[in-house]
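Hi all, a correction to my earlier message: I attached the wrong file for TetR family transcriptional regulator. Here's the right sequence:
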Amino acid sequence: MAETNPQIVSASREIAAPAATIFELIADPAQQPRWDGNDNLVAAEAGQRVHGIGDVFTMTLTVGAVRENHVVEFEEGRRIAWRPSEVGKEPPGHLWRWELTPLDDGRTAVTHTYDWTALTDEKRLVRARATTADKLLGSIDRLAALAEG
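and the right structure:
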């Protein structure tokens, strides 16, 4: 079913790789700049692999800023979601989510969602509106190239 709230953007596609392989690329922040379709991420220190709700990992953005990412949803191999924030501050209300549904041993349905329904920081609204389904699909496509390669 198509999402009708313009503040919740998502994209989906099938990837010809096992869910565990795909999930490792998502749950290890050091891998995220390799597949980021928004061209927003530069680097993350190794050793920050996410293992559960409450974990926090840091990323360096292309503009040089560092963001803390607070994991708020987690199911190993299936679902991960985080809320980014400036270091030491409360998350302003947007969320990135990945959902993986194994179809068989070598195929996985992948859905990537950006939800900014709770975003309160006015200076982030322009960027939030610019995050389109095409950009999310770009991340999924890059992720597929890595996982299928």
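Sorry for the mix-up. The mean pLDDT is 93.
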